[in-house]
Design brief:
It catalyses: tRNA(Pro) + L-proline + ATP = L-prolyl-tRNA(Pro) + AMP + diphosphate. α1 crosses α8, α2 runs antiparallel to α5 and α2 packs across α8. The chain is elongated, with a radius of gyration of 24 Å. With about 400 residues, it is an alpha+beta fold. It starts with 20 loop residues before the first helix and ends with a helix. The structure holds adenosine-5'-triphosphate and magnesium ion (MG). The site of adenosine-5'-triphosphate (ATP) has 16 residues, from β8, β13, β16 and α8. Adenosine-5'-triphosphate binds next to β8, β13, β16 and α8.
Length: about 400
């Protein structure tokens, strides 16, 4: 893409009311637009990163045998009353809307209820299980805290996976497989090293849930990490009894600030019993389906990566999710030899389907470099008079500053 054609512009200052580093950088670099507190639009650059994050997650969900669907944002009140999750006393984050036909609807906060209900129309026999189903879908939550930028939206994109099994042991196998898939996802997103599987409060059906918590000073959560064993405990369940159960000792733990990137839950039969999702076994006996749920915040991930992969100059995307692989910065003037060489390099890379942003704008070199640092594409190729004279371009890695000299042919 030619930068002269990109409608978004970089800016020096983030909005005064934006306190989160991730949103400040993403707004300044033109990835997101702040609509209001906790509500963001994703502009072309931001959408490219989101799509790349989504694709990594999708590949791992498919490898797990997950089947993708997409459910509705508008929710049926009657269904949520059956699980006792409609009442504001029970769930305080609903956005509820009056219907012209009478009654009300709500904007989806999560999707256990509607999916369990869908499954009752398709699952009836032991032959129909086990199954895993997932989606990328917008959730709405009337969140109080709005200091974390895109990491805590009132409207945000989540990947949610749900598992359906015949027995506890079959469920456990699905849960363990999802856990492994999550490890692969966070590794591919470049945060494997700094993301800890953390024991947290579990809900009704198990003692613990597990959270994938990423180290960051901007985090809202506090965990205690055992670096040797590579596991952690959320502050909310930290007690002598918990430590004993997990075989951990207080002395080996370090307190850390973290952001929750994802979590995995045992749901037991809470939803299947309430909504009548059951199967008939080989002997003709009926049993409730055993469920699990597994979330990853996709828009939150954009924020996490902006938060932990950036420096004072701007963003520094890992190659796996970057909006483009290369940023060509041309120091030429329209029609001169330098800009012709940059044009040729851009054309050849594009021809090979290598993703490249080409700064072909009529602007000062300093401005172009500052913008390039802010936008954070992994490799910058500088096309100037020196490069033409030597026949080699400087290819600068944004994250490390490492410089490689490469000819036109070597870059391709
Ligand atoms: P948190 O404790 O951060 O509020 P949660 O326990 O409410 O998260 P879930 O309801 O299980 O989280 O949602 C699954 C995932 O969705 C989370 O792990 C997180 O990555 C993401 N997520 C949750 N709330 C938000 C939000 N308000 N904005 C963006 N992402 C979110
Ligand atoms: Mg929450």
């Amino acid at each position: 893409m030619r930068q002269s054609a990109l409608f978004t512009k970089t800016r020096r200052e983030a909005p005064a009311d934006e306190v989160a580093k991730n949103a400040q950088l993403l707004i300044r670099a033109g990835y997101v637009h702040k609509e209001m507190a906790g509500v963001y639009s994703y502009l072309p650059l931001g959408l490219r990163v989101l799509k790349n994050i989504e694709q990594i997650i999708r590949e791992e969900m498919n490898a797990l045998g997950g089947q993708e669907l997409v459910m509705t944002a508008l929710q049926d009140k009657a269904l949520w009353e059956r699980t006792d999750r409609w009442d504001d006393e029970k769930v305080d984050s609903w956005f509820k809307i009056a219907l012209k036909t009478g009654g009300e609807t709500g904007l989806a906060i999560t999707h256990e209820e509607p999916l369990t209900s869908i499954m009752t129309e398709h699952v009836s026999s032991y032959r129909d299980l086990p199954v895993m189903v997932y989606q990328f879908q917008t959730k709405f939550r009337n969140e109080l805290r709005a200091k974390s930028g895109v990491m805590r939206g009132k409207e945000f994109l989540m990947k949610d996976l749900y598992s359906f099994a015949r027995t506890d042991s079959e469920h456990q196998a699905q849960y363990d497989a999802a856990r492994e898939a999550y490890k692969k996802i966070f590794k591919r997103l470049g945060i494997g090293e700094r993301t800890y599987i953390t024991f947290a409060s579990g809900g009704v059906f198990s003692e613990f849930s597990e959270e994938f918590q990423t180290l960051s000073d901007a985090g809202e959560d506090t965990i205690f990490v055992d670096k040797e064993k590579k596991i952690a405990v959320n502050k909310e369940v930290m007690s002598d009894a918990t430590l004993q159960k997990l075989g951990l000792t207080k002395e080996a733990l370090v307190e850390k600030k973290v952001i929750e990137a994802g979590n995995i839950f045992h749901l037991g039969t809470r939803f299947s019993e309430a909504l009548g999702l059951a199967y008939t076994d080989e002997q003709g006996k009926r049993h409730p389906v055993v469920m699990g749920s597994y979330g990853i915040g996709v828009t939150r991930m954009l924020g996490i990566l902006a938060e932990v992969m950036s420096d004072e100059k701007g963003l520094a995307w890992p190659e796996s999710v970057a909006p483009f692989k290369y940023h060509i910065v041309s120091l030429g003037q329209k029609g001169d030899e330098v800009s012709r060489a940059a044009d040729a390099l851009y054309a050849d890379l594009t021809q090979k389907s290598i993703e490249v942003l080409y700064d072909d704008r009529e602007a000062r070199a300093g401005e172009k470099f500052a913008d390039s640092d802010l936008i954070g594409i992994p490799y910058r190729i500088v096309v100037g008079k020196e490069a033409l004279a030597s026949g080699e371009y400087e290819v600068v890695a944004r994250a490390t500053g490492a410089v490689a000299k490469k000819t036109h042919g070597e870059i391709l």
